């Protein structure tokens, strides 16, 4: 059995055992194993499986050209990686259908098995708000736009379903909010400063909270929310700010990682508040930061080569192999011989190998905490906290 499938099998077994134990509690008679049918996905290029390739202002971007997709698909698919993304591994592990990119679908049949609303370059905050802070975004899509698209899909599905059936659809779905906010921070840091970027944290967390609240109002019961990756370890930012104070343990820009940590602490607090406000829902926090830091600090221990801060693909050369003028997929650039030895694919996005590592860590975290789906048990019957940190 493949390692990822084994991890999922163990997770589901743990859920089943815990649910069985809960059944002996006076208030737990309704507990049963939650079985998910589909994903509804939100986020940016770390989650986008094809929308940016269609959206007018991003169509024809790097992810639509070779060597993107070479490792798994053998061709570009609109994914910003050499192969599969984190969401692809989660979908495979839970054995649910691949969600249709929103901009690629038209009919109920195309959306009934799940939808991916993520767009490469999307921000958590609306472009107008960012502009009011002197920050210019390059892609006019925000998290609020993606939640609007979600409501559009619900209306389409509602045309052939009753309100009760719609609630069954959302209740049996995993709402996956991939990393979102990275582009806000990058745009603001390039245009302004790290202090301006840090001032956006409460606004970004507020935007995520509003989106999650809308999902819950629509009937969402299981919501997985991904934290911020270590910004200071991105080859694009390391190349842009080579003179900054670097952490001796990782080589990453310390102040940028502190910004990511600030974001993640605020995100976890917000999820705790939502958990208390909505005890019938399961809010899961997925920690990308910790696993990337570990891979960068000890690459060999995680199967990577000796250049964890360099991009596999690009024409930049040097320590980080990154240059905005020679981005992966542009003429004169090339990919490394073995992407699985690298954490970063193009200086901005992860390789398939890194995405696999992160997805497995998410599943291990769920298994260790023996998360009981609040979707099927009353609050008093739960045996574990609904706030789950992937370890």
TrEMBL record:
Keywords: Glycoprotein, Hydrolase, Signal. InterPro entries: GDSL, SGNH_hydro_sf, SGNH_plant_lipase-like. SUPFAM superfamilies: SGNH hydrolase. GO terms for molecular function: hydrolase activity. Residues 1-22 form the signal peptide. Belongs to the 'GDSL' lipolytic enzyme family. PANTHER family: OS10G0393700 PROTEIN, ZINC FINGER FYVE DOMAIN CONTAINING PROTEIN. This is GDSL esterase/lipase. It comes from Urochloa decumbens.
């Amino acid at each position: 059995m493949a390692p990822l499938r084994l991890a999922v099998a163990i997770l589901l077994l743990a859920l089943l055992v815990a649910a069985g134990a809960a059944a002996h509690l006076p208030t737990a008679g309704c507990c049963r194993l939650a079985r998910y049918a589909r994903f509804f996905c939100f986020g940016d290029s770390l989650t986008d499986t094809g929308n940016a390739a269609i959206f007018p202002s991003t169509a024809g971007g790097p992810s639509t050209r070779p060597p993107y997709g070479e490792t798994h698909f053998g061709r570009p698919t609109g994914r910003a990686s050499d192969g599969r993304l984190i969401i692809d591994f989660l979908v495979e592990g839970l054995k649910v259908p691949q969600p249709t990119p929103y901009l690629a679908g038209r009919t109920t049949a195309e959306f009934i098995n799940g939808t991916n609303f993520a767009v490469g370059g999307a921000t958590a905050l609306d472009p107008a708000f960012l502009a009011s802070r002197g920050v210019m975004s390059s892609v006019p899509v925000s998290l609020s736009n993606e939640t609007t698209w979600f409501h559009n899909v619900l209306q389409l599905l509602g045309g052939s379903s009753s309100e009760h059936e719609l609630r069954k659809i959302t209740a049996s779905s995993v709402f996956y909010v991939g990393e979102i906010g990275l582009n806000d921070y990058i745009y603001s840091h390039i245009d302004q400063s790290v202090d301006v970027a840090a001032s956006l944290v409460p606004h970004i967390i507020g935007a995520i909270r509003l989106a999650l609240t809308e999902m819950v109002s629509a009937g969402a019961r299981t919501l997985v929310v991904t934290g911020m990756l270590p910004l200071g370890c991105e080859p694009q930012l390391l190349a842009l700010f080579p003179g900054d104070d670097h952490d001796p343990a990782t080589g990453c820009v310390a102040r940028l990682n502190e910004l990511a940590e600030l974001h993640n602490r605020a995100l976890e607090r917000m999820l705790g508040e939502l958990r208390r406000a909505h005890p019938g829902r399961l809010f899961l926090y997925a920690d990308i930061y910790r696993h990337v830091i570990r891979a960068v600090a000890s690459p060999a221990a995680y199967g990577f080569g000796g250049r964890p801060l360099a991009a596999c693909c690009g024409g930049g050369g040097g320590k980080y192999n990154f240059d905005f003028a020679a981005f992966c997929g542009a003429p004169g650039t090339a990919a490394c011989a073995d992407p699985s030895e690298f954490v970063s694919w193009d200086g901005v996005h992860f390789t398939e190998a890194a995405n696999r590592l992160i997805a497995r860590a998410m599943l291990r975290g769920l298994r260790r905490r023996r998360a009981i789906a609040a979707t099927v048990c009353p609050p008093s019957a739960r045996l574990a906290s609904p706030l789950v940190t992937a370890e």
